[in-house]
Each structure stands twice: as C-alpha cells, then as structure tokens.
C-alpha cells in the first residue's frame, strides 16, 4: 500500500479514494517512527474515525468533512478539518489541538481530558458532555444539554447556548457571550472575576476568536447535587 | 387464667416483618435503600437443572485419566490477538474505587495463577491490576472515568459496557466516603463528593452508533484487541443479535443475580431477567445469525459452583464470569468478621452495604486501615484455589457426560426439576420429554 501514499515535499498525502481508512490511521499512528510531521487527508467523503488514536506532534489537515469521531482520543497532534464534522469530534482527547472550520454535530469534545477544540461554526447538542479537562471554543452557537455532567475544563461559546446548559455540572467553567435558553439542574450564573477574564482572554486568543472577555457571562456548578439530599430530589 | 383457645398471631405474607421494616426505614429517611450485590430473591437458577450423566446410550470418560479440555479462546471474529484462557471462567468487571487497590491486586493474582482474565471497572485501570493480571479486559463505560488511549492499548481486550444484570438501564453512584484523593484523581472529580455514573454512553446511542464507536476503538488499537459488549439480562435474543450487528467479538450477558457496587434495592430486585432465562435466547440469536462459537458468549450472574459453570456451558455459553463469588473467595462476608458485621447492623452473608466503604473484610473500601486487612497474595491464592475447584468440578461433570472438552456439553445432557426451569432453559422436565412451549403446549 506504500505506493498509494503520496509524498509531496514534506507533506504526506493520504488520499482516501486510493487507500482505506486503516491505512490512513496506521500511517498517522506510525508517524513518530518516520520523518514526516505534516499530513493531508483528501477525499474524506464523510468517513468515520479519521485521524483517531494519534500520539505525536504532527499536523494533519483533513480536507473536507468527516463522519463520527474525527480525531478521537487525540494526543499531541494538531488536526485541522476544513469542512464540518460528525458526532463526537475529538472525543476523549487527551492533548493537542483540533480545529474545525465548519460545524460540528453532537457530542463534540465528549469526555475529553485535555487539549483545545476549536469549532468555527456551530456545535450541536451535548457539546462538551462529561468533559474532563478539555478547553472548547465554539465561535457560533451550541445546542441543548451542552456540558452535561461536565467535570473539568472550559467551554467558551461566542454565540448562544440551547436548553439545559450545564445540567448536573461538576467543576467545568462555562463562558457564553450570547443568550442561554435555559440552565440545567445545579448550573448557575457566577461572578466573572479577574482570573476568569484571564483564562477567557487566553482561550479566545488561542482559538483565533475576535471577542472581548468582558462581553461573556460565566456559569458553573451550584454544587447542591454533590451529596444526595432528598430535599433536592426534584433536581435529580 | 383464661383457658379460652386463642387465635395464633398471624404475620401477613404481604406485609411481612421485612416489608414493614423497609416501610419504616423509608418513612424515617425519605430515601430508597441503596446496596451492593445482585438480586437476593429466589429465581429459577442452575440448581433447578440436573445432568443426566452417561448411561447405555452414552459412555463416560475416566475421571483424572482421560482428558477433558477446558481452554477457551475469546475474540476470534475480528481481533488479530484473541485472548487464550486456560479455563472457561473469567473475573467480571469491578471498579477500583468500589474495591480497594489490594482487592484488585488479589483478583489479578488469582486470575493469572488460574490462567484466566480479570476486568477493570468504572474508574479506570490501576497499576495493581495491570501489573498482576496476565490478561486484563478494560471496560469502556458511560462515565469514561480514567479512560485514555494508553490504557486502551495496554489492555488485552476492551469491554464496552451497555448494561449489567443488577441494573439494566441504570447508572451508578459511588458515595463520597469512597471518593478518596486517589479515586477522585483517577475520575477527575472533587474529593469526597457523591459520584454519579451515567446510565448511557455520552457519544453514541443505539447499535448503529455503537458499530461506529467500535470501529473507532479498533482503529485506535490497530484491530488487535477483542471487543466485548456487555449487556444486562433484559431482551437477550434481540440484544445479542444487535451486539453481533454492532461488531462484537465477544458478548458478555449478565443476568439479574449479577452484582453491582451500589444501586437501589428496588432496581436490583425488580429489573432484569434471571441468568437461567437469558442463555437460550442468546444462543438462539447467535445460531440464527450463524455466529454461535464465532462470537463467543460469556454468561455471568450467580455463578457459584463448577456445576453452574458446566450447566451454563451446556446451554451454549463459551465461558462464564464471576464477580460476587470471587469476592467471597477473597474473604468477603467471612464469618470471622461477624462481630463487626453485627456492629454495622447486619450479619455474615447478608452484608451488602459495599458502597459505604466500611467493609470489615477490607475489600469494598478505601479506608487504609480496613484495606490493610486484606493480604493480596494470600487472597489471590484463595481465588486461584477456588477457580481451580470450579474447573475440576466442571470437568468432573463433563467427563460423566462423556465429553472430552467442556464445550462439548449440550442441552441434551440436562433435565429440569421445575416447569419454570424447563421453560427457561428449554430442556425437558425430569422424567418427561416435555419442554414447555415446544410441541404446541
């Protein structure tokens, strides 16, 4: 299959019209043992599980749109999708950066422990569900039940948030510039302190977002569901 | 003295003392009862089946002289590195957090000595269990606590947990007493809070999505690892068929007697299907798809003896899995702690408040003093012994039926003692050729 992997200057081209998904991912996963640090994936045709399980400081440009779980469990790599992504982009990411020029379907950044996910369009429902340390910046809007049971990390939304934002939230920080349709159980608006403005300014800069930290509101956990209390049973 | 004959005080069957005590407890606390373990109610079980043994039409194998193989290979469908086990008995998933570090180590030691696998649980993989488990199955759960690609790659198999027998459709709760600094760190949670585990996965819904999720897991692990799907005993025919469709290498089917670390008692006792009732529909689904023995079936929930193992295999399972029995082998509910059980308001054999972290045996706890009571080397040796006995018992029964491999046991070797068991296991009622539901009635 080597013959179907084209090398153009220092960029290795992986054309999915010519090679199967397994070869694409195997090539990217083998990157630490090669001299290549830059890759382009062509003709993605909405394929699932593109560029998953990477663990190297490489740059991968995905030309087009993808299906489920693009850049899943990423470690250290930078993955840039020029189109839109299906459900679960950068799910369980540990480190590195994932940039989506278009929109993201549901579960973007689900359960991810680290790294930066930038979505330049909108993200659908359950963005940042169960996030465990990732930073997510969405230039557009996010859908309902986003940051459900979010544990750690930061979710920044330049647009609006849908219903039940931050339901059953733990310690993740949520920053929204636009409107919030409703807050989920145990999620409340919190004071924006200087430390939060600093975090926000840094994230906006890293995500290439033209916005002022002062225009955002911060949301977090009221911590009333941290210990089961029958008097709060209606909230469960 | 009044010598008029008196009516005997009569207790209500409906409102028994046990029921009334629970009503009073609920009225006092305002919250349902949470406990560990599986269903305690009597349900049709393997005890209701008997082996026929050899006779004029079947000849037995000589005990201890003629071979009766016990090896099993799991994950032959897609994985490039299937798991080879010496015995058809595995250790079920139990979490670090619910169990202590020494208990996880003991499970790994015992399983490895016996030539079988152990399984992680909610909360991630610990060095204790990886280091001491020759074969380790890494559970992929809805909470994804501690989930990371490095541990995925160093696992020997991956088990996607869709449900468990004690609570099909339910999530979990680990109370704050057990969320120590180490447990909290592994789960990315604040120390000491009640930790909830979601009831469904955060990034897929249904078998079509799961097929894609499994593709992702295979791509991340280079198609090496067997992928198990664990399901609770609910609708076994359809759940197994859909698991095959989703791409499972192995299906783990857990009946309602299977244990949990902590869930509502009302859930444990009232949701799910007995293990005995799950196996035949599951096997039929595999057979209908031409996948029996190609996708391996592991059955769990109430396996206690080699007879249970043999009966599960005879009904079509490839292997069984034990959880509660393994904990008892380690030392759970041991009579030597009776005084302490009484101080906790319970007694030996009934202790099930595993979630409270006060286990006198040092197994279901994170208390350093209690944990220190369990010697993982000695406990591991006990588990090895117990697994060996299960295997010997299973071989004994298989030889009596003339089988040179425990997988050669078959439903035709069995009869049932009750109509219910005959119907569930689809074997004849003893002394008849009647299988309820077959032949028109």
Descriptive terms for the model:
heterodimer, A: 236 residues, mainly beta, Pectate Lyase C-like, 24% strand, B: eight-stranded parallel beta sheet, 15 helices, 16 strands, 13% strand, globular
Describe the model:
The complex is a heterodimer of chains A (about 240) and B (about 450). Chain A is mainly β. Helix content of chain A is about 10%, strand content about 25%. Chain A has a single domain, classed as 3 Solenoid (Pectate Lyase C-like). In chain A, strands 1-2-3-4-5-6-7-8-9-10-12-11 form a twelve-stranded mixed sheet, covered by helices on one side. Chain A is elongated, with a radius of gyration of 19 Å. In chain B, strand 6, helix 3 and strand 7 (about 135-140) form a beta-alpha-beta unit. In chain B, strands 5-15-14-12-11-8-7-6 form an eight-stranded parallel sheet. In chain B, about 55% of the residues are buried. Chain B has about 450 residues and is α/β, with parallel strands linked by helices. Chains A and B meet through helix 1 of A and helix 6 of B.
Biggest sheet of chain A, open or closed, and with what strands and sense? 12 strands, mixed
For the record, the CATH class of chain B is Alpha Beta
- Overall mean pLDDT of chain A stands at 94
CATH superfamily of chain B: Aldolase class I
Percent range for helical residues of chain B? Answer: 25-40%
Widest sheet: strand ordering of chain B: 5-15-14-12-11-8-7-6
| Silhouette of chain A | elongated
Helix count, DSSP H or I runs of 4 or more residues of chain B: 15
Q: Output the number of helix runs of chain A.
A: 2
Strand order of the largest sheet of chain A: 1-2-3-4-5-6-7-8-9-10-12-11
| Count of DSSP strands of chain B | 16
Q: Tell me about the biggest sheet of chain B? A: 8 strands, parallel
Give the radius of gyration of chain B.
22 Å
């Amino acid at each position: 299959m080597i013959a179907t992997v084209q090398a153009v200057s220092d960029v290795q081209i992986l054309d999915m019209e010519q090679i199967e998904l397994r070869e694409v991912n195997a090539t990217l996963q083998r990157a630490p043992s090669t001299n290549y640090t830059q890759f382009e994936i062509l003709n993605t045709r909405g394929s699932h599980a593109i560029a998953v399980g990477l663990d190297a400081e490489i740059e991968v440009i995905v030309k087009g749109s993808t299906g489920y779980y693009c850049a899943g469990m990423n470690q250290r790599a930078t993955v840039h999708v020029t189109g839109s992504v299906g459900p679960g982009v950068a799910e369980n990411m540990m480190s590195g950066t994932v940039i989506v020029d278009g929109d993201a379907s549901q579960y973007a950044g689900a359960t991810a422990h680290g790294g930066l996910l930038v979505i330049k369009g909108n993200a659908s429902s359950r963005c940042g569900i169960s996030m465990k340390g990732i930073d997510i910046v969405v230039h557009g809007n996010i859908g309902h039940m986003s940051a459900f049971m979010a544990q750690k990390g930061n979710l920044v939304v330049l647009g609006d948030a849908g219903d039940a934002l931050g339901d059953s939230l733990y310690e993740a920080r949520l920053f929204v510039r636009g409107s919030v349709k409703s807050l989920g159980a145990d999620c409340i608006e919190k004071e924006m302190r200087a430390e939060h403005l600093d975090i926000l300014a840094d994230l906006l800069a890293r995500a290439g977002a033209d916005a002022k930290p002062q225009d955002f509101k911060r949301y977090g956990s009221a911590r009333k569901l941290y210990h089961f209390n029958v008097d709060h049973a209606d909230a469960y | 003295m009044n010598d008029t004959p008196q009516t005997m005080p009569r207790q209500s069957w409906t409102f028994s003392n046990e029921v009334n005590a629970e009503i009073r407890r609920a009225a006092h606390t305002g919250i349902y009862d949470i406990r560990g373990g599986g269903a305690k109610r009597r349900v049709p079980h393997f005890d209701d089946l008997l082996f026929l043994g050899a006779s004029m039409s079947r000849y037995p194998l000589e005990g201890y002289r003629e071979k009766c193989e016990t090896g099993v290979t799991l994950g032959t469908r897609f994985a490039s590195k299937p798991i080879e086990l010496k015995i058809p008995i595995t250790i079920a998933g139990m979490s670090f957090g619910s169990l202590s570090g020494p208990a996880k180590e003991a499970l790994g030691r015992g399983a490895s000595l016996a030539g079988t696998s152990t399984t992680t649980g909610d909360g991630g993989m610990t060095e204790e269990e990886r280091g001491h488990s020759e074969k380790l199955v890494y559970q992929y759960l809805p909470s994804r606590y501690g989930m990371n690609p490095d541990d995925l790659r160093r696992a020997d198999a991956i088990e996607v947990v869709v449900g468990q027998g004690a609570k099909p459709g339910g999530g979990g709760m680990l109370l704050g007493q057990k969320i120590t600094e180490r447990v909290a760190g592994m789960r990315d949670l604040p120390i000491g809070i009640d930790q909830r585990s979601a009831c469904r996965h955060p990034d897929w819904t249904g078998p079509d999505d799961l097929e894609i999720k499994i593709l992702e897991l295979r791509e991340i692990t280079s198609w090496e690892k067997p992928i198990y799907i664990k399901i609770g005993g609910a609708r076994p025919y359809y759940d197994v068929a859909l698991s095959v469709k989703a791409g499972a290498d192995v299906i783990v089917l857990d009946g309602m007697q299977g244990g949990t670390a902590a869930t509502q008692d009302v859930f444990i006792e009232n949701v799910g299907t007995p293990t005995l009732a799950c196996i035949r529909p599951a096997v039929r689904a595999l057979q209908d798809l031409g996948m029996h023995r190609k996708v391996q079936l592991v059955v769990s929930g109430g396996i206690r003896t080699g007879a249970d193992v043999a009966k599960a295999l005879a009904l079509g399972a490839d292997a069984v899995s034990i959880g509660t029995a393994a904990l008892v082998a380690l030392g759970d509910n041991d009579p030597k702690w009776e005084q302490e059980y009484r101080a906790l308001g319970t007694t030996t054999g009934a202790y099930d408040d595993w979630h409270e972290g006060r286990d006198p045996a040092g197994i279901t706890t994170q208390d350093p003093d209690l944990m220190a009571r369990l010697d993982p080397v000695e406990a591991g040796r006990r588990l090895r012994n117990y697994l060996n006995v299960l295997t010997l018992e299973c071989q004994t029964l298989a030889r009596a039926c003339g089988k040179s491999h425990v997988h050669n046991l078959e439903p035709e070797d069995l009869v049932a003692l009750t109509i219910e068991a005959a119907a569930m296991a689809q074997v004849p009622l003893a002394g008849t050729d009647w299988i309820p539901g077959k032949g028109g009635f």
